[in-house]
């Protein structure tokens, strides 16, 4: 049995990871300020400390109270569009929280760190699939903030021996296939939950952000990866850290779907049309982001197992139908 610190463990990907760790018998301490996260999303059995990761004193207290085998750092600002309105806040907060936490981990002698990173650090693609070595040139302040965080962790590795795995998520989507957890952001800005809410009449008609991209149907193409597959990547990189090395991995399916294809799939799975209108492009959106996941497969044996678009949409839909008010509804 191991013990892990999980920041943002009441959020979307964080809560799914906490559940997986608890289920396999690990001990988990969550730090989450519950601004975005939900108390009800934290798996029973995990210890929840309600605190801001920016609060050095509280973070130090947590490291003093428990010894951890590794830290998973999910807590972050993560909206591309918001980052284009508040770039300095995004860069300051995401960078400084990552480095403050890394510093506390080093001081406590915990030298394994898993960072939630993002495909947004690539920017405009220079090849059909984004490889770990593709050009890093973010077109959003959110992407920049994670790139800087990764670079800070490189220094922590070189100087302090802090081994880190950065997982560059493509588009996390879907929900726990067992129906225990789902996606509940406030405000919700992600395509799949918004399309589902539009179909269910729980939200307004969807706006398609841009139909004039250089893609087959003019809408943006993304690589949607099931949250359960993402979680599996987090568990597997612990072995890489255990081998004493740091790594950066793309986590995606390797298949791209356009916004229009997603709308069609949501309509099909839900058996209802998705009302939508077309609108202008959203700042900070690259036209295409699709992963090469070869490195993660080769080095960890990871395979996407739930990542057909229909399974992603179906699990998201099932959770939403059962929780039309999200975690507020219990
Ligand atoms: N979209 C719409 N209408 C909406 C919402 C989204 O057309 O109402 C479009 C976006 O323009 C984009 C696609 O649907 O082309 C997906 O948008 P999301 O907001 O669901 O996701 P993003 O691609 O913007 O961002 C997500 C994560 C980021 C991560 C990125 C990497 O939120 O953290 O994937 O691909 F960096």
Automatic annotation (TrEMBL):
It catalyses: UDP-alpha-D-glucose = UDP-alpha-D-galactose. Its EC number is 5.1.3.2. GO terms for molecular function: UDP-glucose 4-epimerase activity. Its cofactor is NAD(+). InterPro entries: Epimerase_deHydtase (IPR001509), NAD(P)-bd_dom_sf (IPR036291), UDP_G4E (IPR005886). Residues 5-252 form the NAD-dependent epimerase/dehydratase domain. Homodimer. NCBIfam families: galE. This is UDP-glucose 4-epimerase. It comes from Roseomonas haemaphysalidis.
């Amino acid at each position: 049995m191991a013990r892990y610190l999980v920041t943002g463990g009441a959020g979307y990907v964080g809560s799914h990871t906490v559940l997986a760790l608890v289920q396999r018998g690990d001990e988990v301490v969550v730090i989450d300020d519950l601004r975005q996260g939900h108390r009800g999303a934290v798996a029973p059995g995990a210890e929840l400390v309600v605190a801001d990761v920016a609060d050095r004193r509280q973070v130090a207290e947590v490291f003093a109270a428990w010894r951890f085998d590794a830290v998973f750092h999910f807590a972050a600002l993560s909206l591309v569009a918001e980052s284009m309105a508040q770039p300095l806040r995004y860069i300051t907060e995401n960078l400084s929280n990552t480095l403050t936490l890394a510093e506390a981990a080093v001081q406590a002698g915990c030298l394994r760190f898993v960072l939630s990173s993002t495909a947004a650090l690539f920017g405009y693609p220079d090849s059909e699939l984004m490889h770990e070595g593709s050009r890093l040139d973010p077109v959003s302040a959110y992407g920049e903030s994670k790139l800087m965080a990764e670079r800070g962790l490189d220094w922590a590795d070189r100087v302090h021996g802090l081994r880190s795995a950065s997982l560059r998520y493509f588009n996390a989507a879907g929900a726990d296939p067992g129906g225990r957890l789902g996606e509940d952001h406030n405000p919700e800005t992600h395509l799949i939950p918004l399309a589902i809410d539009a179909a269910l009449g729980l939200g307004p008609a969807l706006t398609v952000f841009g139909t004039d991209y250089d893609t087959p149907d003019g809408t943006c193409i993304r690589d949607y990866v099931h949250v359960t597959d993402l979680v599996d990547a987090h568990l597997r990189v612990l072995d890489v850290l255990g081998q004493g090395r740091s790594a950066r991995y793309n986590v995606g399916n390797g298949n791209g779907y356009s916004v229009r294809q997603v709308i069609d799939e949501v309509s099909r799975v839900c058996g209802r049309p998705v009302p939508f209108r077309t609108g202008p492009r959203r700042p900070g959106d690259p036209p295409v982001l699709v992963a090469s996941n070869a490195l993660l497969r080769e080095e960890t044996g990871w395979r996407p197992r739930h990542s057909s678009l229909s399974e992603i949409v179906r699990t998201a839909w099932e959770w939403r139908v059962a929780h039309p008010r999200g975690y507020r509804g219990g």
